[in-house]
């Protein structure tokens, strides 16, 4: 049986579709390609932080320096830091990269230990990060994309300096 011009066109079209499908990721299933966990920056690269809000305080950029204020009047700030400590905290958030973990991590999504909210230049919505503890480890959930990243106690203390991690309910 010979193919006419229409038949050969159909063969070429279906061959191209199969090749596109194969090149777009189907080959990973056949080759056993598994996405390995990798370090990911917490904040977007080259982000410009305007404010960082914790539950009890707000850290905001004033020109080239930083200041902290209590979110509620007549309430003292838990972490009364120097301008240099505030700059180091913001720099830590901007440069840290954490390992993304499997989404089947066991922690109670209704009870975060702490919340950090960033306002970034050029972004319409704030970036919200929730700190959780489960299975003896700490987890950071980026609310917008639902990314879950694992972190150890030392890193959690660096990112959330106003929390007393020695309290029994956090440990």
Report on this structure.
The structure is a single chain. By secondary structure, this protein is of the alpha+beta class. The protein folds into 2 domains: 1-34; 39-159, no CATH class. The chain is built from 3 helices and 9 strands. The protein has helices at residues 5-31, 83-95, 153-159, and strands at residues 39-41, 49-53, 57-62, 65-70, 97-100, 114-120, 127-134, 137-142, 147-151. The chain has a 9-stranded antiparallel β-sheet with strand order 1-5-9-8-7-6-2-3-4. The protein is elongated, with a radius of gyration of 24 Å.
Estimated share of beta-strand residues: 25-35%
State the domain count. Answer: 2
Rg from alpha-carbon coordinates = 24 Å
Main sheet properties = 9 strands, antiparallel
* Order of SSEs: HEEEEHEEEEEH
Could you tell me how far the N terminus lies from the C terminus, measured between alpha carbons in angstroms?
Answer: 76 Å
The strand line-up of the biggest sheet is 1-5-9-8-7-6-2-3-4
Main structural class: alpha+beta
Unreliable stretches, pLDDT < 50, 5 or more residues? none
Query: Helix share of residues?
Result: 25-40%
Number of helices: 3
Number of strands: 9
- State the shape: elongated
Mean pLDDT: 83
